[in-house]
Amino acid sequence: MTLPTRRAVCAAALALLVPPVMSLPVAAAPVEAASRVAAVDWAMLETALALGVTPVAGTELVHYRRSVVTPAVPDEVADLGLRGAPNLEMLLRTAPDLILSSHFYTGIRQRLTRIAPVHISTINAPNGRPYVRALTETAELGSLLGRAEAARTLIDDTEAAMERHRRTFRNLRPGPILLVNMGDTRHVRTFGADSLFGSVLERLDLANAWTDRTQYRASATIGIERLAETPEATLVVVEPTPPGVEPVLTSSPLWRALPSVRAGALVRLPAVNPFGGLPAATRFADLLSRHLTGGTADG
């Protein structure tokens, strides 16, 4: 007799856990505060951690520790693998009573609801102001997790930091900011007003030099030559930069001829989650303030 595989056993268990998908509500909230939370979305992961909740599982944790940095993820959190294709068998084994997701996971929403109730974030949904949404959703998540007071503190601390930085920039008057992330030696990704970074600039009363259209992820991929269209802007490069790109750029006549590079109006920021919540917003504002007020501008 052929024994069933582990995959078959997990699939059978998953099928028995809940009724058919059509009978399940999307984004259903448990009556009591969840005690075992899993997060497939990084904005929700960092927000839960900032509220003092340690999830049982999260996605791409090695990359998170390198690119998101803070809040730190404890070692005991199970890694579900890629954000784009989380390991649902492992998620099932962690036995969550709530899954924190987002609009990015529409394609697997029904499969997630077979495991546990799902809370869906729209912080970084298209055509919005992610920072403003993050303020609201932090309060909602705090209530859902029984951390309403911690959520209020996080919101108040974030707003206090934003106001402090806004006053700093009001005195500094840095001019328009052109935010980019390097794609390759010829292309960058710019961030519009509907991105987390862009909405933080708005909160800080800073002008976003990119006013053209953005795409689904609130950014636009453009050729490096287009950076010359805003010669008055300070160019802010948000890491990480792909391997091998920096040596090519430093010797590129096109890059060196850009007005911001030639004038030394180039700032490099350490990695920040561009699709985060309030923790990412605060990290971005802190780093931007530190680097624009005499930290590490280079050209």
Automatic annotation (TrEMBL):
A GO CC term assigned to this protein in UniProt: outer membrane-bounded periplasmic space
Top-rank taxon: Bacteria
First and last residue of the signal peptide: 1-28
Keyword RNA-binding tagged: no
PROSITE patterns xrefs: FE_B12_PBP
Fe/B12 periplasmic-binding domain segment(s): 36-296
Localization: Cell envelope
Presence of the UniProt keyword Transmembrane helix in the record: no
Keywords: Ion transport, Iron, Iron transport, Signal, Transport
InterPro entries reported for this sequence: ABC_transptr_periplasmic_BD, Bact_iron-sidero_bind
UniProt record, GO biological process: iron coordination entity transport
Chief location of this protein within or outside the cell: other
Name of one Pfam family that matches: Peripla_BP_2
Protein family membership: Belongs to the bacterial solute-binding protein 8 family.
Protein name: Amino acid ABC transporter substrate-binding protein
